[in-house]
Amino acid sequence: xxxxxxxxxxxxxxxxxxxxxxxACVPITQLRYFNDMEELDEPVVNPRTQxxxxxxxxxxxxxxSIDLQTSQIFNSTEEMRSLGYGVSSGLLGYxxxxxxxxxxxxxxxxxxxxxxxxxxxxxxxxxxxxxxxNTSIIVKFVDNQVTVMGEVVRQGLYPFSQDKLNIYEALSLxxxxxxYGDRKNVVLIRNVDGKIMHYRxxxxxxxxxxxxxxxxxxxxxxxxxxxxxxxxxxSNITYTTIxxxxxxxxxxxxxxxxxx
Length: 260
Prior knowledge:
By secondary structure, the chain is an alpha+beta fold. The chain has 6 helices and 13 strands. The longest helix has 28 residues, at about 230-255.
């Protein structure tokens, strides 16, 4: 019978390193965004309703008038600066206070809380009609921002101007999820009627597009949690380093002619 060599200590160390490295590997299904595309029978309908104006929102308000002087009074950037109104990205920003009011020139306080932008435009136009006739009002949200944290390429606070910004577009502002991010474990923090709500999102689920949190709201916070396998691998880095050092030392000793 052929002689079977017993495994040396060097062999055992090498095998241990291979097992540790294999344990740190991440399945491809955890790196993909969608693994269930074939389960979608028809397009998903999104229930997103128009955002309502809330305290501390900032509104872009433009007064349209055939009278040039009226347009200059209400739409002049320098004029708004002298009146103390915020200006962001070239747009005139009217801050909604804690009671839901804006302080509009000549008119004074106008409550726009819990209104859509179109309803607020109608209310402002009605209030302004006592002073100026034949005007049209445009109201939009400005200074929208979302915080992106965790396992993304660039963490930070990002502004956006879209009326509808979905969760994937928000993550792309931060460069997207890193290879260590868990697409099935994304936390969304949102202020709803004065209450801090936490939602756990599965971005690998194709049906997420019909959820109310599919679209991001201003001041939302998105946190991408790390993959559990990768998180565990962090604690294995020290062990891997030690084992690598041992194997290197063994290789040197074997080269020198020593045996274990």
